[in-house]
Amino acid sequence: MSTTLEPDAPTRAVDRGQYLLATLLVALGGYTVYDATTLNVGFGDPVGPRAFPYVVGSVLLVLGILLAVATARGDRPQAEEGEDVDLTHPADWATLAKLVVVLVFTAATLGVLGWAINGAILFAGSAWALGSRTLVRDILIGIVLSVGSWYAFYVGLGIPLSPGILDGIL
């Protein structure tokens, strides 16, 4: 009687990134649902301010759980056929750091500089962080987009965005 040794079953690598994302989705969804319970509800509105956070939080919870289950089953992200991104290549942390700096600067100076200036800085800074070499063009496009969106919100929707140092000019 001959015995043959069967090769060991292939070991699957644990995709910690997917589990981390699933954990973040569940935590964010849980916090959103919890936070919705603390909102004050008026008696005149049948839907109230809680409806949207409940929906968003519930969707985040379900997506996080589904992602964790799919990851546990061995599902791995697949690149699309036309996609030219190499999923085995490490992240570009320098670009990510530049984008974070631009976003933090925008958030920190929004009240002082206002949306029209900050939007232009946000656009031009993001374009620079992602590799654009045409700074003047990026600034001009950012100015057009930010001033245009400021007027769209203020005039079109009636929602005032911060004018900052341009108060009285816009």
From TrEMBL:
Superkingdom field: Bacteria
Keyword presence, Transmembrane helix: yes
InterPro entries: DUF1468 (IPR009936)
Keyword terms, alphabetized: Membrane, Transmembrane, Transmembrane helix
Keyword Transmembrane helix: yes
Residues annotated as transmembrane: 20-39, 51-72, 99-123, 135-153
Limits of the DUF1468 domain: 21-161
Designated name of the protein: Tripartite tricarboxylate transporter TctB family protein
Species of the source: Nocardioides cavernaquae
Classification lineage: Bacteria, Bacillati, Actinomycetota, Actinomycetes, Propionibacteriales
